[in-house]
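#onboarding

Welcome to the new folks! Below is a worked example of what a typical request in this channel looks like: someone posts a single protein sequence, and someone else replies with the predicted structure as tokens. Don't worry about understanding the tokens yet, we'll cover that in week two.

Example request:
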Amino acid sequence: MNLSLRWCVTAVVALAALSCSDPVPPAAQGAFIVTLTSGVAGRQCSSGPAYTYDVPSVHGTTPTEELSKDRYLHWTVDGESGSQVSCTVRGSSSFAFSGRISQSPRVLEITDGVLTNNMTGTARITTIDSAKLSTTLTSPAADCTITVANTHNGPPVKAGSLWATFTCPSVIHEPGDGCSAKGTFVLENCGQ
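Example response:
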């Protein structure tokens, strides 16, 4: 009987330990919208004078619901519907960040991102829409201006998430492709 009692106590402790384990963190998610325009000196914008695309794709069907600096209604989740989302947002008063949102044929990648305590900063932006563009377009350096969106709830940036707008003087592909780019992105449930 003593052996049975020990076995029961051990089993109860083991089950209690399993039930107290940390929950699985939610999958990374996000959204982006990009507008490419011509006007980079000495280069041709392969998308034409102006072209806008987004993930998830709502611009062409319900433009009143597209992502903006103050509207975030639709997002894509890593691993769902062929989407891939990965991101890191670290900091408290200033931040370092990176991210990639991909839902074929469209991709937005943000690298070398930094935000100062005034909620502005810089990053390098790479964008792809292989259905419309023949090349990958990348800013020559981390020279895209990043501005944290300012909603009625205050600046939406914290460790693990970021909602911001970007403006790139140029995103290029050598030897002659080049466009200006602007847009908005949201990164959530990111590594910290």
